[in-house]
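Memo to structure team: turn this sequence into structure tokens by end of day. - J.P.
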Amino acid sequence: MPYMLKTLLLSLVTLLVIAVFYFSIDSRPASKADPRNAQQVAQGEKIYDTHCASCHGNNLEGQPNWRTPKPNGRMPAPPHDKSGHTWHHADELLFGISKYGLVPPYGPDNYTSDMPGFANVLSDEEIWAVLAYIKSQWPSDILTNQQQISAD
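Reply from structure team:
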């Protein structure tokens, strides 16, 4: 086989391998909160029970009248189950709120919230575990919708 033909053939094979590899991987990063990871979910449930349930409820139900401001103007803790709006938000936003609190850029300017940031209490891994636990409690259609929101 002539040298030029071998070089061309090798180049085409190399390009084909690169193309197959490129198109076979998803360029979006996977969520760090995996509701199918039983170990992460179990860890998240324990952390949720310790740090979140007192406001957001033992069953992720939130505080009563969570859509109505309290006398001080702050909003009650919302539910994290399917009845709330948590699943309407991307993972990165949920992580930011959990880590830093409901402050800009994760919340409105000039808004005071009872939601504390857990940056000095929980590691990033622990925050992701809590989010995995919360997501594990959602029905599959809501989980699918939230995953799409996170991917966009």
